[in-house]
Amino acid sequence: MNTMKKRVLSSVIAAASAASMALPVFAANMDTEITGTYSAPTIAVTVPTTGTAVINPYGLGMEVTKSDSTKVTVAGQIATAPLYITNESSMRLSVGASVSGEITARGEGDTTTPLKFATSSTQGNGTNPDEEGYVAPATAKSVYVTLQVADTTIATADATEDKVKDAVIDEYIKDSAWTEAAKKELVVGLKDVKGDGLATLEKPTVGTDGAVTAYPAGSIVMFRLTGDCTESPKTAWDNDDGFTVNVAFTFKPAPAASGN
After folding, report:
1. Average pLDDT, integer, range 24-52
2. What are 113-123's pLDDT values in tens digits?
C-alpha cells in the first residue's frame, strides 16, 4: 500500500515539473532608445584656386612646361593651361559645378565695342546660306566658352606634384580625353549655369598614416575652358579684350561602381 502511494505521488510531482517547464517566461519591460544626430561625411579634395586661359583667334593656343622642361602646346581658340582635381577622400565622389562669366571692363572713356559671350559656336554651321538651318559665322567680337570636366584613367605610382602634373599634361592634350566631357559641358554666360554628375573621382591609395600615397586610375579628373571665337570681327581684337570665369565645384559621395 505504501509502495503504491509513493508511485502515485512521484507521478504527480513529475507532471507538475513538466507543466512548470512549459510556462512562458515573463520579464520586466525593456526599452531601447536610439538617438540620431547629423554626421557630415569627410570629403577632401585638392582643387586649384586659379587658372589661365587665352583667346587666340588663329587657334595657336598656349605652351605649358613639364617638370623636365619639355614644352607642350595646348591648342585652340580658347585654350586653358592644364587644370585638375585630385581625390583625397576615402570614398568615390561625384563632381558637379556652377559656372558664370564676366567680361573684362575696358578703360574709362573707351567706346570700343565690348567683347560678348556667345550662346553657341561663333563658327556657324554649313557653307550654303540657302540650306535649311544655316547659321552664318559671327562677325561681332564674341567668344563661345564652355566648361568641360573629364574623367581620366591617369594613374601615378606616387602622389608627388610633378608626377601628377606631368601625367595630366600628357592626357590633357589628347582630343579623345574630352569626348565624353563635351557631352556634359556647361556653356559660360553672364548668369550661373549648373550641372551635376559631370565626372567621378575614384578613391586614392592611402597609407597607414592617412596620407595619400598614390592616385590609381580615376582618382584624378581634369577640367578646362574651351570653345571658339570670331576670327576676324568687325571691331578688331586688342589687348584689352578678356573675360573671367568663376567655377564653383560641388562634391558628394557617389554610389559604388557597378560590379563592386
Report:
1. 84
2. 789 999 999 99
List C-alpha distances in Å: 216 to 157, 164, 175: 8, 11, 22
Give a three-class secondary structure readout of 95-115: EEEEEEEEECCCCCCCCCCCC
DSSP strands (E only) in 116-257:
116-117, 142-151, 186-187, 193-201, 205-206, 212-214, 220-229, 243-253
**Domain ranges across the chain:** 45-253
- Is the pLDDT reported for residue 3 higher than 60? no
Contact 186, 118 (CB under 8 A): no
> Quick check: 148 and 224 in contact, CB under 8 A?
yes
Closest CA to 145 of 68, 91, 224, 57: 224
Q: Can you tell me whether residue 35 is helix, strand or coil?
A: coil
Q: What is the pTM of this model?
A: 0.83
Phi, psi of 235 (to 5 degrees): -100, 120
What 8-state DSSP symbol labels residue 116?
E
What is the DSSP-derived secondary structure letter of residue 175?
Answer: G
Find how far residue 138's CA is from the centre of its chain.
Answer: 32
Q: Which three cell numbers stand for residue 61?
A: 593656343
pLDDT tens digit string along 196-205? 999 999 999 9
* Structure-block grid coordinates of residue 99: 559656372
For residue 45, the tally of other CB atoms under 10 A from its CB is: 15
Cell of 4: 503504491
User: What does the DSSP 8-state code read for residue 219?
Assistant: S
Mean pLDDT of all residues in 197-217: 94
pLDDT mean across residues, the chain: 88
